[in-house]
Each structure stands twice: as structure tokens, then as C-alpha cells.
Amino acid sequence: MKEESDKRKGMKFLGILDIQNTPCARESILNGAGGSVVAGLVHFLATSRVKRSFDVGVAGFMLSTLGSWLYCRYDNAKLRVQQKVIQDGIKNKVIYEGTTLDPTRKTRGDA
Amino acid sequence: MAHPTQLGFQDAASPVMEELLHFHDHALMIVFLISTLVLYIIVAMVSTKLTNKYILDSQEIEIVWTVLPAVILVLIALPSLRILYLMDEINDPHLTIKAMGHQWYWSYEYTDYEDLGFDLYMIPTQDLPPGQFRLLETDHRMVVPMESPIRVLISAEDVLHSWAVPSLGIKLDGVPGRLNQTAFIASRPGVFYGQCSEICGANHSFMPIVVEAVPLEHFEHWSSLMLEDA
Fold first, then answer.
1. What is the pLDDT of residues B211-221, one digit of tens each?
2. Closest to B188 measured CA to CA, from A86, A23, A93, A87
3. Which stretches are transmembrane (chain B) (predicted)?
4. Do the chains contact at B36 and A69, CB–CB below 8 Å?
5. Structure confidence by residue, pLDDT tens digits, B7-62
6. Which CATH number fits domain B95-229: 3.30.70.1400, 2.60.40.420, 1.10.287.1490, 3.40.50.2020?
7. Minimal C-alpha gap between B191 and chain A (Å)
8. CA-to-CA distance for B32 and B35, rounded, in angstroms?
9. CB B186 within 8 A of CB B203
10. What is the pLDDT of residue B35?
């Protein structure tokens, strides 16, 4: 029960995004933070403009987080579809194995 | 069911509700990013030393804040429309149940094979056995077989009601003289609670909905018992 209540609390960024319990959220935020630091640093090293580099860093955070989020969610969705197909396949195999409806059963020519 | 002080959704008990949860996470991430951007812009505006009042021909920013919202809306709209049409699919249901709203109880009819019908009244708080849920328990339950597509036809006998079960991702109005159709698949066994979601009089808050998903053989046994009692 304590583990369940700990899981449910989570950490909410800006009070809305539950990082711990939302799939792909943590990875996206971390990738976004990394992208932000890289983008801001590269811009500063190239131009020596501090304020504009901060702006570029924030833009980098937006784009990196969004890109990482979309990629991870797409992979997640594909995985869920595959899991569903496998689940249905296992269920159908259990139900139909050995019967005439078994699709893996080889049909005999004289049957 | 909901736990005390809960703010978010209940755990999904149907594939449609799972998709809704995923869409909600997606929309919330976009909202989070927009909020972060707005917060940063506010801080930048407050801390800037620039005070030029006559800013003209800001083509770049105009393009950015026209194109970016359009892109964001497309990113939200595409999955939203996908789920909208997914919720309307009725793929060869195994069972059809009619849910009729009355003042102030729900009645259910299973008329596919035999004529089975019963009413669900809320158990008053003073009659609740210890451990049961206040304002949610009923004397009978709408029992359905799990992992089977179930079609529910919802209507009402007197005034507007609404049949809602959050963990199945269903909310549909019961309108007198009209049949509204929805379908769901209960992915796991369990008891799922809901409450009437359209104001319908004095006891609107006291006509809950209880759906119990059980394996098929248990459902057959239950329906035989109910037919004997009828």
C-alpha cells in the first residue's frame, strides 16, 4: 500500500506533468535538458552573446523535448500494438490448438 | 474506482480508455512545453532593459507565432481525431445491453437470448456493510463477460440522465425517446463504478452505475441465476 501511494504521488513539473508515472516523460525532459545545454553552449561559443544564447537554449529545450517525446511515444505505441498482437495470438493458440480451427495445423489431402 | 483526493484519471479498464490516457499524456506534455515557453518569455520581458515603444515590421516573430501555434494544433488534432473515430467503432458485439435511466435508478435489460431485466438501486449509507463504498454500491451489478465487445444502448424513461463509467472511458447521455449507442471491451476482470452524469432531480447523486466484468463461464452462471430468480 505504501509503495502504491508513493507511486501515485510522483513529481509534477510546473504542477501538471507527472514525470515519474508518465511513460517517456522522464527521458524526454532529460534529453531536452541535454539539448538545451548543447544548443546554448554552441551558440555562445560561436557568438559570445549571453542573452541570445539563453534564448537559443530554451528553444533547444523545446525542440529536443518534443522530438524525443514524439519518437519515444511512437516506439511505445508500436510496442503496445505488438504486445496486443502477441497476447491475442497466445489466447487464440490456447483456445484453438488441436482443433480444426487451428491455423498452424497442416491439412491432409485426403481429409 | 477513485481514491480519496484523486485528481487524475482512474486506471484504464478498456482499450479505448488506455488510448485516452495516452492522448492525455501527449496533450499535457505540449501544455507543459507551452507553459515553460510562456514563463520564460515573461521573465525575459520583465528583466529586459529594452524600452523601444515603436517596434515596426517584426516579420520574423510574426511568422513564428503564426506557424508555431498551427503546428502545435496539428500535433494535438491528429491523435485526437484518431481516438474520436476509434471510439465510434462498433465491431461485432457479443452482447447488447439496454441501460435505461429512471428517477432515480438504472435498469438493465439483457434481451439477446432470454428476457432478463433488473433494476439497480443504490444501497443507502446506513445499510452499507463495512468496507463497501458510500454512494457507489448497488443492490445488483451489471455483469458483463470480460474481453468481449459489449454494446450498450442507453436511453431514459423520464428526464435526461447520463451513463458514465470513467475507468471504461464511457459517458453517454440517456435521452427520453432516443437510443444512444456505445461499445466497450473490459480488458480485465473487476468492478468498475460510475455515477449519473446529467442532473436529473433530487437524487441525481444517488443513482450509481456498477459494472462487474467476469470470465465468460461466471457470466453464464450469473445470468442463469438471475433468470431463475426472475
1. 999 999 999 99
2. A87
3. 27-51, 63-85
4. no
5. 889 999 999 999 999 999 999 999 999 999 999 999 988 888 877 766 777 888 88
6. 2.60.40.420
7. 19
8. 5
9. no
10. 93
For residue B33, the chain A residues in CB contact (below 8 A) are: 62, 65-66
How many Å apart are CA A102 and CA A84, to the nearest integer? 19
pTM score of the predicted model = 0.85
> Where in chain B is CATH 1.10.287.90?
15-88
For the structural domain made of B15-88, what CATH number should be given?
1.10.287.90
CA–CA dist B213, B141 (Å, integer):
10
* Residue pLDDT, tens place only, A47-76: 999 989 999 999 999 999 999 999 999 999
Instruction: Verify whether the Cβ–Cβ distance A73 to B26 is below 8 Å.
Output: yes
Position A2 pLDDT exceeds 50: no
Selected residues 45-104 of chain A with any CB under 8 Å from a CB in chain B:
55, 58, 61-62, 65-66, 69-70, 73, 77
Cα distance between residue B11 and residue A21, in whole Å? 12
Q: Do A65 and B33 touch (CB under 8 A)?
A: yes
Partner-chain contact A14 B44, CB within 8 Å: no
Mutate which: B7, B32, B37, vs A, most A CBs within 10 A: B32
* Closest partner CB to B29 (pick from A8, A25, A55): A25
Could you give the CA distance from residue B133 to residue B57 in angstroms, rounded to a whole number?
63
How far is it, in rounded angstroms, from Cα A20 to Cα A46?
36
**Whether the Cβ atoms of residue B120 and residue B107 lie closer than 8 Å to each other:** yes
DSSP state of B194: E
Question: Under an 8 Å CB criterion, which residues of B touch A?
Answer: 3, 8, 22, 25-26, 28-33, 35-37, 39-40, 44, 75
Residue ranges of chain B assigned to CATH 2.60.40.420: 95-229
State the smallest CA–CA distance between residue A100 and chain B in angstroms: 22
